[in-house]
Every structure is written in structure tokens, then in C-alpha cells.
Amino acid sequence: MSNLPPSRIPQDVLAEFVKSEQYHNSFLISPDDALEGALKRSQDNGLPNISVSVAQGKFLKLIALSIGAKRILEIGTLGGYSTIWMAQALPGDGELVTLEISEENAKIARDNLDRAGIRNVKIVVGNANDTLASLLPVVPFDMVFIDADKASYPNYFVEAKRLLRKGGVVTSTFLKIADNTVRDGRVADQSYTNPHLEGIRTLLTMLKNDEEVDATNIATVGEKDYDGFLYAVKL
Q: What's the CA angle centered on 219, arms 217 and 222, to 5 degrees?
């Protein structure tokens, strides 16, 4: 089978998780006009609703703050929502480089970043596999966030590891930090296959024997349905 069926979580159960997530967010995450505006403009411009959730965005910001990140690499810009979250954690002399395959998406992201007052972000348009291969930074990145084409996750991770300092962090969504890792539990179900699932499975196989990183996968459920993310530290 090549196509994923609808979520297997009953909608009433999922609704309770969403309600719980929103309740916690009401205490832990303050309203932010720049972020909310970025989401609305992205939606108004027809971008798909696949950005990280509010809580995931805050988590990315906290990761960057906790490791004192000054240089962040993002693979998959979309409308710049996660970009803004992470950029908010950077010091004045920090920099975030984000890779986006679509010029139209990049245009929307630039507008969102400008309206948010973010000036330390560089958007690079093109195929991320090609762009990553061309990156030869003098100073390595402290953090890499992957939220893009799942089929390319194995190569994205190899390149991210090359570009990262020791002690640096790679996060990705397996739905969404490698984003969308769990994908409604289908990654572990070998009866389902498509390039996205196979990309994640290949990455997990690679990580099993990779002595250069220590990693874990966290399953999530809430506003972004049922999925998960990868968190890895370069040793």
C-alpha cells in the first residue's frame, strides 16, 4: 500500500488531547502578534497547514536558548513560522540560515520575518540536498531543525551532522523536529510504504549504529494530530 489512511485516533479522543494542549499553552505561552500574523498570512496565501504547533515552536525556541545557540540551520522554511520562533532565541550577533525549495514560499516567509522585526535570518532558495552539499561554514552550526521532504531525511541528517558542532542538536519532525517521525504510527507498520515512510525508516536504521550521535524519538499527540519528532545530540 502506498497511501496513508486517515488518522486512527477517534476524533473525540484527539479533541481531548487538543483541548489539553491548548489549556497548558494558555499558561505557558504568551500571545505573540508576530507569530500569529505569520500563521494567518501563510494561510491567506494558500500555504498548507503543516507548520509546527505553537507548543512545538516554543520548544524549538527553548532548545536554542538552553544550548546558547548562535548559529541555527533550518531545512524547510515554508512561511517562516518556526523560523521566527527560533530566531527569537538568538543573541544580537546570532544568525539563522533557512533552506526553502519554493521561491513563492520564501517570498511569504520574507514578508513574515520582516513584519516580525527579524533581521538575522538568511533564506536560501533551492533544492536543500544541493544547498547543503555546498555549505562549508567556517563556524559550525549549534542547532539544526529539519522539517521538509521526508524522503530526503537520511541525507539531510548526514549533512546536518557534518555542519554541526560537537554538543550541537539536530531536531526534526517525523510528522513535523526530523518532523513527522511517527506519522500516525505507520512508520512501524511495514504493510504501509511510500517514499516519506521509507525515508524515516532509513534514518532510524542509520541512527541505530551511529556512534557520532545520541538520539531519541518522542511521540506526540495534540493540535498536529498524532506524530512525533527526533532529538539528537552530536557527541
A: 145
| Structural element, H or E, at residue 74 | strand 71-75
Q: Within 10 Å of residue 146's Cβ, how many Cβ atoms?
A: 30
State the DSSP H helix or E strand holding residue 43, giving kind and residue range, or none if neither.
helix 33-44
Buried b (16+ CB within 10 A) or exposed e, 74-84: bbbbbbbbbbb
For the record, the C-alpha cell of 194 comes out as: 511510500
pLDDT tens, residue by residue, 113-138: 999 999 999 999 999 999 999 999 99
Contact 125, 100 (CB under 8 A): yes
What's the pLDDT at 7?
57
Instruction: Say whether pLDDT at 174 is over 70.
Output: no
**DSSP states along 181-198:** SSTTTGGG-TT---HHHH
Q: How far apart are CA 144 and CA 178, in angstroms?
A: 10
Distance (Å, whole) CA 137 – CA 161: 13
Strand ranges across the sheet with 225-234? 121-125, 95-100, 71-75, 141-146, 164-173, 225-234, 213-222
For residues 216 and 83, what is the distance between their CA atoms, to the nearest angstrom? 23
Query: What pLDDT does residue 10 have?
Result: 81
* 192-201 per-position pLDDT tens digit: 888 888 998 9
